[in-house]
Amino acid sequence: MNAPKPQRTRIVDPKAVPVRGTDAHLPALNSAWLTPQSLRERFRGPFVGTAEIPGDGRVFDRVPAAASVLVPLVQRESGLHVLLTQRTDHLHDHAGQISFPGGRAEAHDADAVATALRETEEEIGLTRSHIDVIGQLPTYTTITNFVVTPVVALVQVPFELSLDSFEVAEAFEVPLAYLMTPANHHRHVFSYGGESRQFLSMPWRPEEPGGSAREYFIWGATAAMLRNLYRFLAR
Description:
This protein is an alpha+beta fold. Helix content is 17%, strand content 30%.
């Protein structure tokens, strides 16, 4: 079988793409809206309208495939944190990128939630006993034509992770309040061969001993789904 041919130029080095600005003109979400109780209440209601970013445009022309990711909101004393993973560098697709745990739906999965829970346990060892699913966001179509359902869940501490070393290099947490502050949403414009398109990034630089300047570059589909979560929670 012939491999699918690219329909557009892939962005190989997103950090090198110029930042044209941030969305600081939009308000940060009220901290009272970012509590487990408030999120439960919000997800009980319907999603009105469409996702702000429904997809990042197809690069490969292939048959659509269903997938799910878990958006794990860890309940810390300091507030909710989003649990993310960094993929290993040797993977064929999205090597080294930051993502939610998740993957392709299998025939035996009952629904999108079952896919997200199975993939999360396989990738990072987070068991279902710690996960309380509270809702879903609209689907997001990736450049590789996966139609992804983001499943949002609260995660109870304490828990232990067991990373699949083939797929996952690291798991880390980012405060939900940081990601729900549009001043931290950077807009990039990629231009090549007469083509121009935008994408979001949400760089995260945690405070570490010794003043380390390490940066987690959250971009692409992960950043877009987080932006869709912002729009869903905004009132």
